[in-house]
Design brief:
Oligomer: single chain
Shape: elongated
Number of strands: 0
Structural class: mainly alpha
Distance between the termini: 22 Å
Helix content: 55-70%
Radius of gyration: 18 Å
Order of helices and strands: HH
């Protein structure tokens, strides 16, 4: 029986996968924004809801963090669920 179900992995995925993915998204967003400069962003977007508006400089960076965080969380949860299935069948291999 697979003990690593999506429901049991949600909070672990949210914390571990979300923070790791958001960190990767932060680096990607910062590198991209440094590459293009201020570019097409007429507003910095650092106040209130403009911080989450993807057409502002800060908003684009924050949305990259959200996208990477959710993607990494889902990838990690799927991998752990698959590992649980292999573990339940007795097919998992030690290092």
């Amino acid at each position: 029986m697979n003990k690593l179900t999506m429901g049991k992995l949600f909070f672990i995925g949210l914390i571990a996968g979300g923070t790791t993915g958001m960190g990767n998204g932060s680096v990607f967003g910062a590198a991209l924004l440094l590459f293009i400069g201020r570019g097409p962003y007429p507003d910095w977007g650092g106040w209130g809801w403009d911080t989450y508006n993807p057409v502002t400089h800060a908003g684009f960076h924050n949305w990259m963090m959200f996208v990477f965080g959710i993607a990494f969380m889902l990838i990690m949860m799927l991998a752990m669920t698959k590992h649980g299935e292999l573990e339940a069948k007795g097919q998992s291999k030690p290092f």
